[in-house]
Amino acid sequence: MALIECGECHGDVSDKAASCPHCGAPVMQLAEVVDTGDRLTTTQQTSKQLKEQVLWAYLVMVVGVGMLVLMPLWLNAKGVAPTPYSYGTGAVILALGVIWQVVNKIRIWWHHS
């Protein structure tokens, strides 16, 4: 049986006691931490694969927005009139990125609950 210091009142407390006899503060958790000597580690709940999927979906959305904005400008610079297809390609890629992002967010939510 060893004496440890209370974290609240700094009085001497047995390491077997559940609480400090002076102030009533719980000390059992402190004793368990002192006994194991392990540091507290936190674990990220979202896997690396899901984070990469989110990153790729954002990249697809940026490419879609870029095509939606830049493709008609590029066609105008070449002297070609933009067609609905020039807007449609960027819009489809943007929509795919948004859908992919929504699916990823649902997967992350499902993984956490």
Automatic annotation (TrEMBL):
<feature type="transmembrane region" description="Helical">
    <location>
        <begin position="85"/>
        <end position="103"/>
    </location>
</feature>
<keyword id="KW-1133">Transmembrane helix</keyword>
<keyword id="KW-0472">Membrane</keyword>
<keyword id="KW-0812">Transmembrane</keyword>
<protein>
    <recommendedName>
        <fullName>Zinc ribbon domain-containing protein</fullName>
    </recommendedName>
</protein>
<feature type="transmembrane region" description="Helical">
    <location>
        <begin position="54"/>
        <end position="73"/>
    </location>
</feature>
